[in-house]
Amino acid sequence: MEEKNIPEKRFSTGVINATVWKNTATKKSGETAEYNTVSLQRRYQDKEGNWQSTNSLRINDLPKAALVLNKAYEYIVLRDTESKD
């Protein structure tokens, strides 16, 4: 049975953010495995002024999305490299 994943780290450039999630799952062998996923979202205010989230990006959001995704990737890879040293 999978446990609930928890946010490990968030990278943000204004309204665009990438969140690194720490997940655990139990393999068929009974071993527990940890793995990461990354979610990307854009925050915006609706007509009533309430903050909402979407995975749909505008063209001007793409450079910011690339930046936060690269930071998330760098975080995961460097953390895993440092833990092996």
Describe the structure.
It is built from 1 helix and 4 strands; from the N terminus they run ββββα. It is an alpha+beta fold and 85 residues long. It is globular. It has a 4-stranded antiparallel β-sheet, covered by helices on one side. It is 27% helix and 44% strand.
Main features:
single chain; 85 residues; alpha+beta; four-stranded antiparallel beta sheet; 1 helix
The SSE order reads: EEEEH
What radius of gyration results from the CA coordinates? 16 Å
**Number of helical segments?**
1
User: What general form does the structure show?
Assistant: globular
Overall number of domains: 1
Low-pLDDT stretches are: none
Major sheet summary line: 4 strands, antiparallel
Distance between the termini: 31 Å
Helical content stands at: 25-40%
Strand order of the largest sheet: 1-2-3-4
Secondary structure elements and pairings:
Blueprint: E1 6-13, E2 16-26, E3 32-45, E4 51-54, H1 62-84
Antiparallel strand pairs: 1-2, 2-3, 3-4
Describe, in short, the structure shown.
The protein is α+β, with helices and mostly antiparallel strands and 85 residues long. The protein has one helix at 62-84; strands at residues 6-13, 16-26, 32-45, 51-54. The chain has one helix and four strands.
